[in-house]
Protein: Signal recognition particle receptor subunit beta
Organism: Salinispora arenicola
Amino acid sequence: MDYEHSEGDAETVLPTVVKILIAGGFGVGKTTLVGAVSETKPLRTEEVLSEQGVGVDDLSGVEMKSTTTVAMDFGRISFGDDLVLYLFGTPGQDRFWFVWDELALGALGAVVLADTRRIADCFPSVDYFERHRLPFIVAVNCFDGAHSYNLDEVQTALNLDPDVPVMLCDARKRESSKEVLITLLQHVMKGRGAGRAAQPVGS
């Protein structure tokens, strides 16, 4: 925990603040998840898809999508009085990957959202977090009409280490999205060892 002196003899206990990335392919639901779970109005940097994206952006499976995140989404959620998560949704298109290193700086862990209709879109995110040794989980966003796969099949398809959690979610629903974040925190703390505290952003 972080502490700050206050007037009088009492101390004000400030919450631990951690940074979480929400990653995945184009149109997988990152903006939706941040918006569903954030307790404040989320910051979004969405732009309307333009002619410049023709032949560059693959819209197969997400033909109705008309906007794209060009920098990040940002939201926050508190767990009790002692933990606050800052959520940073990453851009899903290759041409915006130059911002990833900045967004990942100081992050505690990441959620990789997956769409079984476009499962290969997860590979760049998985590869990035594996190379940077940033703990992550995979959350399969259950789109209407998408084929349902066994979670073991998803883990095999993405060639994940056995200890990387894979779960189902509905990014539109707050409680489902909260479960994703809780699973990530549990995974991070398990990896760090029992009783070891989370590090603040920028540490």
About this structure: The chain has one domain: 16-42+71-195. The helical segments are 30-37, 100-104, 123-131, 151-157, 174-192. The first helix runs from residue 30 to 37.
